[in-house]
Design goal:
Blueprint: E1 8-19, E2 22-33, H1 36-41, H2 56-62, E3 65-71, E4 77-83, E5 91-92, E6 96-100, H3 109-116, E7 119-125, E8 131-142, H4 145-149, E9 161-173, H5 175-180, H6 194-204, H7 208-217, H8 222-233
Antiparallel strand pairs: 1-2, 3-4, 3-7, 5-6, 6-9, 7-8, 8-9
Helix pairs in contact: 6-7
């Protein structure tokens, strides 16, 4: 994450060494993730609020952002960002956690991993707070209408909902969030443009389709305009 920038950079790889507080990772995949999760959660607009909401249900009610960690049978892990307004991000009861699948990069890493290996973990974040709630359990994906309608926004019903059962909950104060000093958010660095980064990345991709798309995206301002249009039209 970069303060005030809605797009994220997702980096996947494998740890090859560690020493003290340093870890070396070989990068196997790196790409720009669309900004919809941070836009829906209104992530950067909050002011510091470090109240510890002791009841897990109350924390879940205020949650606006989660990082969903999944893993396939070969120990390849993935961390997927998800964001929604408070009250719509997650639903928590004494035995389960639920959240909707919203439009994003159209990647299916989490779904594939859950089908193959359903144990997951999710870090629940209340923007502005340095406290986290970690939920672990066994996930399944459902398209049941009754489940999906619970997460309807502006008459738009998500196509899928993830249900995590047999959950365990761990509450903690995150020193990483405190050190990041994310709220109130600083201005994004000048000249850092996610659209141009995405276009440059695509130009490096192999294949005729990627090359043609890269040429089209090289038109000045085109990527930025298309991203803004997509964020407005396909947020839910």
């Amino acid at each position: 994450m970069v303060p005030s920038l809605n797009e994220l950079m997702r980096v996947n790889g494998r740890v090859i060494a560690s020493e003290g507080s340093e870890v070396w990772v070989t990068v196997e995949e790196c790409y720009i993730h669309c900004g919809k999760a941070l836009i829906r959660s209104d992530f950067w607009s909050h002011t510091p609020d470090n109240h510890d909401r002791h009841a897990p249900e109350r924390f879940a009610e205020h949650c606006r952002f989660i990082g969903l960690a999944t893993c396939d049978p070969h120990a390849h892990a993935d961390l997927s960002p998800k964001g929604d307004p408070a009250g719509l991000m997650v639903q928590l009861d004494h035995a389960s956690l639920r959240f909707a699948d919203r439009p994003g990069n159209r990647r299916t890493d989490s779904f594939r991993n859950i089908v193959d290996q359903p144990r997951v973990a999710a870090a629940l974040v209340v923007p502005g707070s340095f406290h986290l709630m970690i939920v672990r359990g066994t996930a399944r994906i459902t398209d049941e209408l009754a489940e999906r309608e619970k997460f309807s926004v502006n008459d738009k019903v998500p196509e899928l909902v993830t249900v995590v059962t047999d959950i365990s909950i761990d509450r903690r104060e995150s020193q990483a969030l405190a050190r990041a000093n994310a709220w109130p958010a600083a201005s994004a660095p000048p000249g850092l443009n996610a659209g141009r980064i995405a276009a440059g990345h695509l130009k490096l991709s192999k294949g005729v389709g990627a090359k043609l798309a890269g040429l089209a995206m090289s038109v000045p301002g085109l990527v930025e305009r298309e991203m803004a249009k997509d964020y407005k039209k396909n947020l839910y």
